[in-house]
Design goal:
By secondary structure, the chain is of the alpha+beta class. Helices cover 39% and strands 15% of the residues.
């Protein structure tokens, strides 16, 4: 009798356990379905906001048209019908035009052919021709269509942009909710950084990053953020971090980096461009867009900041939003400044911004594809020819135009290194190289790695990062656990 009672009790317990497991499984399915529904709703909201952003940009583009001017111009065997005058730039006028045979809309930049701008225009055309040959979807640089030089004018045909970033943001009319500002702000930040990461991959400095030189180009569904105006661009050798340029080189105050506006010990202007000079300009631009003003009261205050050895880094008001991102870009010391690629990686791993970046990557446009793109060898070789060796600092350059031999650093990964590209092999030695040597070790017998430049801001805890930097995961804190969206 006791055995029968015990068996019945066990059977009842087993049935109860199975029922609980079934209820838990049903609950998990319901939660998963609810989470998927929330994701779809968030994605729909995101797509709706981006579509609204495009509509606003297009409306602003229509407002910039000032007059109708119709005439024809032939550029590299293509006839363009000029439709409207759009705007006037620093050196010339921008017109909206159409290809006569296809009706495709383009932009035509018409400049007066004067000796003082010929070198700059030649530089821009050379860069645009080469960059166009790099195959990548949603190209981050305005597409070059052709050019023509006459005795009086220079004509450049390019992809048509609906609006520049300055015009759009200055005249934005959408209702500025916290959610909208967060998403719209991240669209701008992420894809400006993507464009700059593209240039970093090619060791190119744009030299004049500002809202007027960043445009919105319509795509089939949304739009793409692209860079224009490469007249001030410079190609750097991979072994160099900084170069000296002409005193009269074109620049825009506030967006020009501190190293560009600094005076030397003889109180002479020492025009320096660093590989992170463009991200400084982007940081100033983001500060202006989201805080509504520059970090400095006037030009004199900014020049003083650039030349004051004791001036502290820019502090972004919490009310402006995106403080973490902007402060990474506005380090006065260019060697401490975050690159565009590194900042993108930080955004992807951020607990708040990472979710927005993931949505952008899936439904809008790839975010970090430029970091992994393949550059054709012939394009890379021709880009090297555009570098001006006489401008480089930190060592002499032989007459051949190639940088003098420098001591390469030892690759910390040794035989385990997976990088085979020429840039990496040019900068680092590996086992089997004549100049390879074992890395130095500290007193405790372990190799000392560099400290991560982001400190508490770093969200990368992968094995590769822990091998490269001395900071361990346990040494980090979560500085943004209470982060709030910008208002």
């Amino acid at each position: 009798m006791g055995l029968i009672h015990s068996k019945a009790k066990l059977d009842a317990s087993e049935r109860e356990q199975k029922l609980i497991m079934r209820l838990n499984a049903d609950m998990e399915k319901q939660l998963a379905a609810q989470e998927e529904a929330n994701k779809r709703q968030q994605q729909a909201t995101f797509e709706q906001m981006v579509a609204m952003l495009l509509a606003v940009a297009q409306s602003k583009a229509n407002e910039t048209v000032t007059s109708d001017e119709k005439f024809e111009i032939q550029i590299e065997n293509t006839t363009y019908e000029i439709i409207q005058f759009i705007s006037r730039g620093g050196f010339g006028k921008i017109y909206k035009a159409k290809v006569r045979n296809t009706g495709r809309t383009v932009a035509i930049k018409i400049l007066e052919n004067t000796p003082d701008i010929q070198e700059e225009i030649k530089n821009e055309i050379s860069f645009l021709r080469l960059i166009k040959r790099i195959p990548i979807d949603n190209h981050p640089v305005i597409e070059y269509r052709g050019s023509k030089l006459t005795e009086k004018n220079i004509f450049i045909a390019m992809e048509f942009a609906i609006c520049d970033l300055y015009t759009f943001w200055k005249n934005k009319t959408f209702h500025e909710t916290t959610e909208q500002i967060t998403i719209f702000g991240m669209v701008i930040i992420v894809y400006v950084l993507r464009a700059l990461a593209f240039l970093e991959k090619l060791n190119i400095i744009h030299g004049d990053i500002k809202p007027q030189n960043i445009v919105l180009v319509p795509t089939k569904q949304y739009f793409c953020i692209k860079l224009i105006d490469f007249g001030a661009a410079e190609k750097m050798y991979t072994q160099r971090a900084q170069l000296t340029v002409d005193v009269d080189k074109v620049h825009t105050i506030f967006f020009a980096s501190p190293e560009f506006l600094r005076y030397d010990f003889k109180n002479r202007i020492s025009r320096q461009l660093h590989k992170t000079s463009d991200v400084w300009a982007a940081g100033v631009m983001f500060y202006l867009l989201f805080c509504g003003e520059f970090p400095w009261n006037d030009e004199n205050a900014y020049r003083h900041f650039c030349n004051d050895q004791h001036a502290e880094d820019v502090v972004v008001p919490a009310s402006g939003g995106y403080r973490m991102i902007i402060e990474l870009l506005l380090k006065k010391n260019p060697d401490e400044r975050s690159s565009a690629k590194a900042t993108l990686i930080q955004l992807k791993t951020h607990p708040v911004f990472g979710k927005i970046v993931e949505s952008l990557h899936k439904s809008f446009c790839p975010v970090d594809d430029v970091c992994h793109m393949e550059v054709p060898d012939d394009v890379r070789q021709e880009l090297v020819k555009l570098a001006r060796p006489g401008h480089y600092t930190g060592g002499s350059v032989p007459p051949s135009g190639r940088p003098s031999a420098e001591k390469r650093r030892t690759c910390r990964y040794g035989q385990k290194c997976y990088k085979k590209d020429a840039d990496h092999r040019e900068k680092f030695t590996h086992p089997g190289d004549a100049d390879y040597h074992v890395s130095e070790v500290s007193d405790n017998g372990f190799r000392e790695n560099r400290k991560c430049r982001y400190g508490v801001y770093c969200y990368r805890f992968d094995n590769r990062t822990s091998l490269k930097y001395s900071n361990s995961r346990s040494s980090y804190v979560e500085p943004f656990s209470s982060y709030s969206f910008p208002t």
